[in-house]
Design brief:
Blueprint: E1 2-12, E2 15-26, E3 30-34, H1 41-49, E4 56-62, E5 79-82, H2 94-104, H3 113-119, H4 135-147, E6 153-157, H5 165-178, E7 183-187, H6 191-194, E8 199-202
Parallel strand pairs: 3-7, 3-8, 5-6, 6-7
Antiparallel strand pairs: 1-2, 1-4
C-alpha cells in the first residue's frame, strides 16, 4: 500500500492550515506528524483519512496489487483511526462495542474479542458498560478497535491521551506485536508517542 499527498493544501477562509504538501507514505513504515498545539496536525491527518477534503491538490492511494488504480475515494475501507475527537458508544459494554466494530471492519484473523480484551487488560470489564470506564480504560478500547482491525493503514492522533506509564507501555507493545506490516501515521507533539517512527513530518514546513 502506498499513500501519496500531491500538492495537498487545506484552507479555512483565507488562512492556509497547510499547503504544498508532497509526500509519499509506504507500507510497513511509520511516520510522525509533529508541531505545536493548534498548528494543524489533526487537520492534515483528517485530510489523509478522507474526513476532510483538501482545498487544493489530491490524495492518492495505491495497493501493491494494482498500482494504477487510485483507491483514495474509498480510503476509509483501508484504514482505522484513534483520535480524541472520535468517541466510543458508551451505552455498550466492551464486548458489545468490539462486536459492533467488527461487524463493519473485521479484526485480524486468528484472534478473538476475548483475547483482545485480555491483551489490553480489560478482561474483567468485558460486560461493563463503557460509560463506567475510566478515561484510561476508554483509551485502551479505542486503541484496540483500531490496532486489531484487519486494514493496512493505522492513523493515530494523540494515541496515549489519558494514559499513565503502564498505558504507554501497552501502546508500544501493541505497535510492536501487531502493527509490523501496517502503514502507521502518528499525529503528536509527545515524543513518547512517536519515538518508534521511521520519518518525521514537521507541519511548520507546509505553512505558506
Amino acid at each position: 500500500m502506498q499513500l501519496q499527498l500531491i500538492n495537498a493544501g487545506k484552507r479555512y477562509n483565507r488562512e492556509w492550515i497547510f499547503r504544498g504538501c508532497n509526500y509519499t507514505f509506504h507500507q510497513s513504515k511509520s511516520y510522525a506528524i509533529v508541531g505545536h498545539n493548534g498548528s494543524g496536525k489533526s487537520t492534515l491527518l483528517q485530510t489523509i483519512a478522507g474526513a476532510i477534503n483538501p482545498s487544493e491538490g489530491s490524495i492518492q492511494l495505491f495497493s501493491d496489487d494494482n498500482a494504477k488504480k487510485n483507491l483514495a475515494e474509498n480510503i476509509y475501507q483501508y484504514l482505522s483511526i484513534v483520535a480524541p475527537y472520535l468517541e466510543v458508544v458508551e451505552e455498550m459494554t466492551a464486548k458489545e462495542f468490539l462486536q459492533f466494530h467488527a461487524a463493519f471492519k473485521p479484526f485480524k484473523p486468528n484472534i478473538t474479542i476475548k483475547e483482545i480484551l485480555q491483551i489490553i487488560g480489560l478482561e474483567k470489564a468485558t460486560d461493563k458498560q463503557i460509560r463506567f470506564f475510566s478515561s484510561g480504560m476508554k483509551q485502551r478500547i479505542k486503541l484496540a478497535q483500531a490496532i486489531f482491525s484487519d486494514v493496512p493503514i493505522l492513523l493515530l492522533d494523540e494515541p496515549c491521551t489519558n494514559f499513565d506509564e503502564t498505558g504507554y507501555q501497552l501502546y508500544h507493545q501493541l505497535i510492536k506485536d501487531y502493527c509490523a506490516n501496517k502503514l502507521i501515521i502518528v499525529c503528536s507533539n509527545d515524543p513518547k508517542e512517536y519515538d518508534f517512527c521511521d520519518e518525521i513530518l514537521h507541519i511548520a514546513d507546509y505553512k505558506k
